[in-house]
Amino acid sequence: MASLCSGFVLSSQLSPNPNLHFFKINAKPLPTSTFKTKPNFTKQDQSTPISRHFVLVHGACHGGWVWYKLATLLNEAGHRVSAPDLAASGINPKRVEEVNTFEEYSEPLMEVMEAVPADERVVIVGHSNGGLSVALAMERFPQKIAAAVFVTAAMPSITNSYVAITKKLFEDVRKDRKDSKDVSGPRRSFSFGPEDLRTNYYQLCAPEDVTLATMLVRPGKPFFDSSIKRDDFVTAENHGLVSRVYVVCNKDRALPRRTQIWMAEMSPGTETIELDGADHTPMLSVPEEFFRHLVDISNRYQ
């Protein structure tokens, strides 16, 4: 799991808009489909824009800061954004050795979801390893989620366990991690090296974004505890009720396109969107196109 990368915006919302409206419907998965063109609108030409609440979940070693471009676009378009720092990530005060379980790691996201009013339904977006935390939120708060978006992410489902995903990643993901490092033993952790970030995760990003990442990434931890490996980590009764969208990044060097497509196919009913020219970090490499797709998703899943 070390090769799944993220994870600026604070744990609270950016410029909250008090006039938000959310609409309840029965969330039913749509048939799988693939979009290779941009949605037919821009943030300026929506005739009846709908203000939504987006919850953005970073991946391993990153923090809410990785969403700064996308959060700005969403906020300027009138949407609310929450991008919590998971435990021992971003500016979260915990150290990686103090986080013992996946549930502890995901607790900041659970706190955000707990605070969402009962009559609101958010669009939750998980990037890379953040897809695991999104799956946990879907299981615990299905009634508060209009759609769950997995962006070149790990995607557990009722038909694809965490153990199966881990096995697939070991088979498909590149073995050369350049200057990234793993620490074994009781304080098991991993960290991304600058060359690995630049070459495999941020290769299509602006140089200043690469510099930002090398300054802000923190050590992460692979989780194999019982809280994530148990058979009922996700269930049809909860997780299965939430509409799902998978965003494939076709220039991703960290998580191969074929593996991303496999993730979506192993979760029947998942809609698939492909971002052309996106590396592993599309919120930085293609933020405008990513923004358009997210707004389109939010308009279709209410």
Automatic annotation (TrEMBL):
Alphabetized SUPFAM superfamilies for the sequence: alpha/beta-Hydrolases
Signal peptide segment: none
Protein's GO biological process: jasmonic acid metabolic process; salicylic acid metabolic process
Any Pfam family matching the protein: Abhydrolase_6
Keywords associated with the record: Hydrolase
Domain AB hydrolase-1: 54-291
GO molecular function, a single term: methyl jasmonate esterase activity
Protein name in UniProt: Methyl esterase 3
Naturally occurring in which organism (per UniProt): Rhynchospora pubera
